[in-house]
From TrEMBL:
PROSITE patterns: HMG_BOX_2. The lineage of its organism: Eukaryota, Metazoa, Chordata, Craniata, Vertebrata. The gene is Ssrp1. It comes from Psophia crepitans (common trumpeter). Its main location: nucleus. Residues 500-514 have a biased composition (Basic residues). Component of the FACT complex, a general chromatin factor that acts to reorganize nucleosomes. The FACT complex is involved in multiple processes that require DNA as a template such as mRNA elongation, DNA replication and DNA repair. During transcription elongation the FACT complex acts as a histone chaperone that both destabilizes and restores nucleosomal structure. GO terms for biological process: DNA repair; DNA replication; regulation of chromatin organization. Residues 457-479 have a biased composition (Acidic residues). It holds the Pfam family SSRP1_C. This is FACT complex subunit SSRP1. Residues 515-527, 617-628 have a biased composition (Basic and acidic residues).
Amino acid sequence: QNDGRLRLSRQGVIFKNSKTGKVDNIQASELAEGVWRRVALGHGLKLLTKNGHVYKYDGFRESEFDKLSDFFKAHYRLELAEKDLCVKGWNWGTVRFGGQLLSFDIGEQPVFEIPLSNVSQCTTGKNEVTLEFHQNDDAEVSLMEVRFYVPPTQEDGVDPVEAFAQNVLSKADVIQATGDAICIFRELQCLTPRGRYDIRIYPTFLHLHGKTFDYKIPYTTVLRLFLLPHKDQRQMFFVISLDPPIKQGQTRYHFLILLFSKDEDISLTLNMNEEEVEKRFEGRLTKNMSGSLYEMVSRVMKALVNRKITVPGNFQGHSGAQCITCSYKASSGLLYPLERGFIYVHKPPVHIRFDEISFVNFARGTTTTRSFDFEIETKQGTQYTFSSIEREEYGKLFDFVNAKKLNIKNRGLKEGMKQSYDEYADSDEDQHDAYLERMKEEGKIREENANDSSDGSGEETDESFNPGEEDDDVAEEFDSNASASSSSGDGDSDRDEKKPAKKAKIVKDRKPRKKQPENKKGKDPNAPKRPMSAYMLWLNANRERIKSDHPGISITDLSKKAGELWKAMSKERKEEWDRKAEDARRDYEKAMKEYSVGSKAESSKAERSKKKKKKQEKQLKGKAEKKGATSKSLSSTKSTAKSMSESFKSKEFVSSDESSSEESKKEDSEEEGAASPPPSSEDSASGSD
């Protein structure tokens, strides 16, 4: 169901799950049968052990059968049998139970097989059996139910449906809380899932009983156990890693986290007699035990799950604690560097093994310089960022990462740092990152060239930005001392007279890039290309040969090698390439002459059209100016006349400020009467009428 790596050795078969890190180890003496068959993903290998367990591995190529068959014969003394699945499409056949598998056969050929450990429930009806399965979180579509019709038989006393169901239930992963619990821990504080739960310990599973939810956790799903001290040294975390996780609706809990106080003590009595305890746990547990609550829980879980408890190693932070306070996503928590990985508690809990880490990185904090971020990227491309780590923790964490031989980003993998934490890493070749090496080499060459040019030339060169190394003599506009330095220069003139002025470092301001003038042409793509030197002609002709002589050579190493070969070449052989370079130069000069003649004709034509256009624009501009001047003169005469009429007033029109408006109107009318000519006789007659 999950990807991983398979290793076949003389001692047995080892499979390591890439997702969980869980290792299946099958001893050669336990193997009973090996079957090779065609499956959906190419070809598959099915291994059956003497105790009834079945292991299936897919993804093989057809060409690998002969190699595997010979290996099985030589080392395991097994014949790798070829068996094909039946593809007739019939839906009736025979059900056969073998070990952990239910096989549906037509004739002698199997159609499909169901691992009974995946069955979560089995129910019976009239002539019918229904199998329900655990949901697979890694698959987009999961098979949830299969129904079998079981025809009635004439035999008395045996119900075929019940017999079928009993065969399934005997091997299925069905949790049935029958019998009494071995012990019960009351009201334990649980961080994930949150709440207080009673934990009932049964022989095959763990039962969490809360006010709202109940969870039943089979011991087969427990991957790892962790016991981690809190930073305050008064509390303890007990972490249970689960695969598959427990579910509540759409929520998945991959970790069960319990929080204990170190002061809590308990006296525990197991619900078994002393002989049963001794027989089952072989001295790891006793019937009556007492001590700290966290010690009792961890001791019982270790004995029942049969797995080691992981505790922090020799790492000690700045404050003396075995963990580091940090934030992951939105929540604050504790990061524990372990002997084989990192674990973060508590929200959300994260466990990262060293063998799945691609590289780690120390980054500057985004909000303040008092903290830094610790980034981890896995080989699958997942990135975890633990932020807001105190600056004092940097040295301790860096030394720990260095000691564990993890690859630190931007520094590369140091020589001799071979990662030894993988359980069978010797079988795989050490992966060499050619791209990283090439980048490092090119960086070194660039630095050397920059140093050479800055030493040799008297001209100013651009300086690289090195924080903390540049001189602070010249204050920037955003510097807090900028205003102080400018104002102090005026007020402290007498101090400056006594003390010789410090020669400020002349920093030339970078001039803004000038706009390309309109008449200046860009590079013409049709222009002939410059000829290559003799060395470049030789390199182009011999590049492939050098690559074939030195497979996997990087670009920088190839350039170095070519330089050495050219240097060692005899004068006679170099003359041949000098002649070719000279011929190329002559051809270029000839082509350049032809190109310049054509370009001159084009440029003169363009110049003439440009001059004509300028002349037209000038004429239009002159006309517009003339028109504007005329309209301006007209408007000025109008305004002069208006101002003159407004400024001239007769004596009669001048009245005191105290005079009313009516008097002024009257005077106006009288003045108009005096000024107007006498009316004609016709007008007077019409007026009298």
